[in-house]
DNA sequence: AACTTTGTTTAGTAAGTTCTAAACGCACAA
DNA sequence: TTGTGCGTTTAGAACTTACTAAACAAAGTT
């Protein structure tokens, strides 16, 4: 193996760390995924400690978060008490899983409160005729429609069995 | 105007604050947008202070951030030294603007470093034959392909003149 | 000129996050 | 039982961020 390979890997790991941070995740998650993604073999928690420089505790937490996102998978070898981890290589599959998990999130609770606002406004509008109320109703309805469209889109994607390049290209051709 | 309208508005404002926070923006941005969105008339900075409870400084900063995202627009009245702000009501238009602005972001610098990794690996592969190097090359290439697909998709959306419900529905029918 | 009215900038604070270091719990081994 | 190797949990340190309060700058008014 060429000796100058190590700095290249390091740069890659750094890059994924930054991406992870950008999306609001800890940098350690990006780093861990990068190390696993570049490894031909499953890695133990201690391997990850050695290759990332983070402590066991941090790795333990981040690797669990990654597993929840289905970006890494936990393996066990018979007769070996260690856990081993591998990176998911099908990014479309991972995207789908993440989109699916979205429902339980804080985000959905937030947009639920918008929907609540809408129903309350409708109730008020049924009781009394009022110009401002009508205005509010239209506005909140428009926002709700937008959220619904987004939701329809993402859940349609999440439902796809085989999201992949072909699908993306088909969509791209529509958008032309 | 019905008296019980105020708590409904408050709940809506709260909801958008949470959404804002979820997407990694300050809660004040969500609150300010919500107040503007529910207002039939443009509001001054002091109006926003009164209706959100944040201080002038905070509002000044957040409203500028919102304007950069084209989610609110600044207006001036002749003979009035105050600035007035209105909410953008075309969310598809705003989405497009946001997607366009993405290019200059930290995110793009990050995925550039992945692209760098790839070219470096290719250079190394040209110089020497090596099994692990080949493995790395394939993996990084696959990730790059995924990023490129995402990039093609978002920039195609950003380029659309009239992203809207009809377009979304057309895409949805494809994904069936 | 001096005073008002506006928006912006800055110093400092409070709160939330990510990480480390170390204690802990658990399962297996001797 | 005691010891060992593993992952998890916890207390706290270092850092980041959003916000307040107050000084400041710019422009209009008197």
Describe this structure in words.
The structure is a homodimer of 176-residue chains. With 176 residues, chain A is mainly alpha-helical. Chain A folds into 2 domains: 5-89, Orthogonal Bundle (Arc Repressor Mutant, subunit A); 94-175. Helices cover 70% and strands 7% of the residues of chain A. The first copy, chain A, contains 8 helices and 3 strands. Chain A has helices at 5-22, 27-37, 45-52, 56-68, 91-101, 106-127, 131-159, 165-175; strands at 43-44, 72-76, 83-87. In chain A, strands 1-3-2 form a 3-stranded antiparallel β-sheet. In chain A, a hairpin with a 6-residue loop joins strand 2 and strand 3 (83-87). The longest helix of chain A has 29 residues, at 131-159. The radius of gyration of chain A is 23 Å and the shape is elongated. The mean pLDDT of chain A is 91. The interface between A and B is large, with 62 and 62 residues. Chain A binds a DNA duplex (30 and 30 nucleotides) through helix 4.
Descriptive tags:
homodimer; mainly alpha; Arc Repressor Mutant, subunit A; 2 domains; 3 strands; 70% helix; DNA-binding
Radius of gyration of chain A: 23 Å
CATH architecture of the largest domain in chain A: Orthogonal Bundle
**Assigned CATH superfamily of the largest domain in chain A:** Winged helix-like DNA-binding domain superfamily/Winged helix DNA-binding domain
* Tally of DSSP β-strands of chain A: 3
Q: What is the structural class of chain A?
A: mainly alpha
The CATH topology of the largest domain in chain A:
Arc Repressor Mutant, subunit A
Count structural domains of chain A: 2
Percent of residues of chain A in helical segments?
55-70%
Give the percentage of residues in beta strands of chain A: 5-15%
- Strand line-up across the major sheet of chain A: 1-3-2
Please report the number of helical segments of chain A: 8
Average pLDDT number of chain A: 91
Low-confidence stretches of chain A: none
Q: Major β-sheet of chain A, in short?
A: 3 strands, antiparallel
CATH class of the largest domain in chain A: Mainly Alpha
């Amino acid at each position: 193996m060429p000796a100058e390979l190590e700095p290249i890997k390091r740069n890659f790991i750094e890059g994924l760390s930054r991406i992870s941070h950008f999306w609001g995740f800890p940098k350690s998650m990006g780093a861990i995924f990068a190390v696993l993604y570049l490894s031909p073999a499953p890695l133990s928690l201690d391997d990850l400690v050695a290759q990332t420089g983070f402590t066991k505790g941090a790795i333990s937490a981040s690797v669990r978060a990654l597993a929840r996102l289905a970006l890494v998978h936990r393996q066990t070898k018979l007769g070996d008490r260690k856990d081993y981890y591998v990176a998911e290589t099908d990014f479309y599959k991972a995207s789908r899983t993440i989109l699916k998990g979205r429902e339980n999130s804080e985000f959905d609770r937030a947009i639920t409160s918008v929907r609540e606002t809408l129903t309350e406004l409708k109730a008020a509008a049924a009781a009394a005729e009022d110009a401002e109320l009508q205005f509010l109703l239209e506005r909140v309805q428009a926002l709700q429609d937008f959220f619904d469209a987004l939701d329809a889109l993402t859940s349609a994607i999440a439902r796809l069995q085989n999201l992949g390049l072909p699908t993306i290209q088909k969509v791209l051709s529509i958008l032309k």
